[in-house]
Amino acid sequence: MNEKIKNVLKKVFGIENVEDNFSQQNCEKWDSLRHLNLVIELEEEFNVSFEPEDIAEMKDIDSIIRKIQALQC
């Protein structure tokens, strides 16, 4: 799952390398529009649907993994 998420992040943010600590804090390209694009891509890739509160909490790879895992249970 981690690699799939990293691939989505690479696509959405137009970058070649995504470290395990990738987050809103250390990515200058992570703005509100790209955040929404990220949510859409993740929903399509993992066949899930996020609630608004989930979307607001998705600020790094770990939080994204937790949200997807919770929805897939």
Quick summary:
By secondary structure, the chain is an all-alpha fold. The chain has helices at residues 2-13, 32-46, 52-57, 61-72.
Cα separation of the termini: 14 Å
| Count of the separate structural domains | 1
What coarse outline follows from CA principal-axis ratios? globular
Low-confidence stretches: none
Mean pLDDT: 96
Roughly what percent helix? 55-70%
What's the count of strands? 0
Topology pattern, helix = H, strand = E? HHHH
Please give the radius of gyration in angstroms. 11 Å
The secondary-structure class comes to mainly alpha
Q: State the major sheet.
A: none
The portion of residues forming beta strands comes to under 5%
Number of helical segments with 4 or more residues: 4
Organism: termite gut metagenome
Domain Carrier: 4-66
Protein name: Acyl carrier protein
Walk me through the structure:
The protein has one domain (2-14, 32-72). It has 73 residues and is an all-alpha fold. It has four helices and no strands. The mean pLDDT is 96. The chain is 62% helix and 0% strand. α1 runs antiparallel to α2 (32-46). It comes from termite gut metagenome. This is Acyl carrier protein. Residues 4-66 form the Carrier domain.
